[in-house]
Amino acid sequence: xxxxxxxxxxxxxxxxxxxxxxxxxxxxxxxxxxxxxxxxxxxxxxxxxxxxxxxxxxxxxxxxxxxxxxxxxxxxxxxxxxxxxxxxxxxxxxxxxxxxxxxxxxxxxxxxxxxxxxxxxxxxxxxxxxxxxxxxxxxxxxxxxxxxxxxxxxxxxxxxxxxxxxxxxxxxxxxxxxxxxxxxxxxxxxxxxxxxxxxxxxxxxxxxxxxxxxxxxxxxxxxxxxxxxxxxxxxxxxxxxxxxxxxxxxxxxxxxxxxxxxxxxxxxxxxxxxxxxxxxxxxxxxxxxxxxxxxxxxxxxxxxxxxxxxxxxxxxxxxxxxxxxxxxxxxxxxxxxxxxxxxxxxxxxxxxxxxxxxxxxxxxxxxxxxxxxxxxxxxxxxxxxxxxxxxxxxxxxxxxxxxxxxxxxxxxxxxxxxxxxxxxxxxxxxxxxxxxxxxxxxxxxxxxxxxxx
Amino acid sequence: xxxxxxxxxxxxxxxxxxxxxxxxxxxxxxxxxxxxxxxxxxxxxxxxxxxxxxxxxxxxxxxxxxxxxxxxxxxxxxxxxxxxxxxxxxxxxxxxxxxxxxxxxxxxxxxxxxxxxxxxxxxxxxxxxxxxxxxxxxxxxxxxxxxxxxxxxxxxxxxxxxxxxxxxxxxxxxxxxxxxxxxxxxxxxxxxxxxxxxxxxxxxxxxxxxxxxxxxxxxxxxxxxxxxxxxxxxxxxxxxxxxxxxxxxxxxxxxxxxxxxxxxxxxxxxxxxxxxxxxxxxxxxxxxxxxxxxxxxxxxxxxxxxxxxxxxxxxxxxxxxxxxxxxxxxxxxxxxxxxxxxxxxxxxxxxxxxxxxxxxxxxxxxxxxxxxxxxxxxxxxxxxxxxxxxxxxxxxxxxxxxxxxxxxxxxxxxxxxxxxxxxxxxxxxxxxxxxxxxxxxxxxxxxxxxxxx
Lengths: 453, 453
Prior knowledge:
2 copies of one chain form a homodimer.
Chain A: H1 15-26, E1 32-39, E2 49-50, H2 54-63, H3 68-76, H4 82-87, E3 96-99, E4 105-106, E5 113-118, H5 119-124, H6 126-149, E6 155-157, H7 166-179, E7 183-184, H8 187-193, H9 203-207, H10 212-222, E8 228-230, H11 236-251, E9 259-262, H12 267-280, E10 287-290, H13 296-304, E11 311-314, H14 316-319, E12 329-336, E13 339-340, E14 355-361, E15 367-374, E16 382-383, E17 386-390, E18 393-394, H15 401-413, H16 417-420, E19 431-433, H17 435-452
Parallel strand pairs in A: 6-7, 6-11, 8-9, 9-10, 10-11, 15-19
Antiparallel strand pairs in A: 1-5, 1-12, 2-4, 3-5, 3-17, 12-13, 14-15, 14-16, 17-18
Helix pairs in contact in A: 2-6, 6-7, 6-13, 10-11, 11-12
């Protein structure tokens, strides 16, 4: 029997959410709580983040429920009272969700989502909401850097095999597509999300033949309109010459070779030599596709060298966000029972209250600065957070993926130059904390210090 | 409607597996293929790898099948012939699987699994087999380093929220438990794998109260035998004194506080001051639990400083294997139709043939060196790969998780000292390539060069 998707189990949570829920219940604390998820500090290699993963959060919140089996299993831990376990049967998400739209660029301290709900609901969803938003945002941000580096050349997600598990493979295809990738090799992302799927051939296909040229002929005949031949199994340039010969034979059959792929060695040098061989062999329209350990840094170098590469497969380093595989994000209580809350833990203090981000633009339509303030404290600029769920129901249909992708493209186009730099961004984007928010933080601190005295 | 687990869909694969299958079918190539999965080169921060993820690979291979919906969706891509799509209906894994047992230490070039099956099966499973084994092995290897660094103190996996998706959250709990962690906060891993689950409280519980001391009393009353109180929300030492007071009040009710958790600041300095406060307050038996940005390097430092910390929560950096978030692994054709195969791509050459690893031990029972040779070429030492599936069926029941964990413990204990170093391992472990394997590689090269001439 196939186990259900771990992501759809209410048990995919940190145990402490449940121990806290039991304690809240014991003392009758179920007033409205407001939690916000934000990134405390960007990794040094990131000048901006691209928000993603909201559609999955909405799906999770709308489908949240405990099954009988799950509650029965919790009983076996002997950590919970029967009364508490019975109370889990009707746990649903009935609250409000505000969020920055997917594909929006965000910075440190800016809430990506705000959840307003009875405490048990708002608290319980912490682990999975973070698990979903954190990964999608980390990958979309990495992928956006690849798109910036590629100078308009198409990128395809090749990273399923080394993504961290099934869901990472699937959701990184979506996050990178939002960031501007042309598509993915992950077939399931085609079915689930309608993302264009791409595929070439593996070395094994060539290796399984005694003759590389025969492998090329056979593959092209099986994919008459779509064959991209992998040419680095043995000797890249020798293989390119075989492609030229094969193309001559195939032309008589009405078959065109779409292109070749190079997956190892000095990609720029190989691409130059292969381009010449293809051009001289009458295959000027055959494309060169390159892959192998690519990321934004290598893409930038290949583009700067003017390598005659038409498109890139980008895998592992993008799907794992290898140079910054996690974000310092937090899901923090900002208000409970109508009163602002924050923690002051060393290096991890958070801002209280229901916050809003107001973004100002310069004359060219580029981001000028953001103001972080309270929802009720209108500031100049465009507010970024908008309602998504009200009392657990969608306020409006979620945007289509194409719409999210177009939004991301516009956001990336509006980035100030200093934030596009791939290396440690020299300038940090200005997120101004408004006086009203500082005043609330002071008030909260005075109150908690008084109670501590 | 809840979407099924992405990991159980046959479409969780790279598109090229399918385009190749179509080409193999078109030319009638379905002889026996042998593929092996290995790591080409260890990351510079790793002296060894701990193999994990085999149970999930076995589950995947045994459950592999296309649904009608999946085949119908593939038809919409217009990349495949009706005849080929119909052939997917009966795709099952009917081959053999040999593997290094989970919890075994392995090195570069050593096969973790060998798959021997008709070409279409052996080729098709590549993407998901790698996706599963790569992540579990990367995390188990990282977790083993944490265990080595912690000097016997218990570690608990806290990393669900920043693991890369649902499956990564679940499987990293399993991989780290195999490596020697005491348990996990990921509740689902308790239900699915029987791993001990642990949980304390979050800052939000304290923040939601106007009075921190009141929060402590309430949490302890709701968890009378199990309360670990989080004391760094505002002022760590002040909170420790409140814990002492709370403990006095609670003693009258028969409630004991199990311990406290510190999650920020200088953990060693705080732990020393808190230990003194607890001891002087009569809470000598209350444990100190520490968490927050921990990994093997910080664990080593805390242990070296003699910090009075009883147990650690280790999260993000372990679950993402943050200093080496991917392994340079490959799944390569080693034999087809009875003939050895390898590729010679620059920097990515592979060894041909059905291989076996023979491990020798020194007089103290520690690893001395390995020999990589062909299955039929017996060498001194213990062979590491053993049959797991034969014709798609289990040769024997898979070991229980406790058994795998004990095996890993014994393997870690048998590591030579040089390989235990956390920093760039000075010594590299000796994996000797046997003459028989070199001879086969030469023969394969002569053959493929001849055909290329």
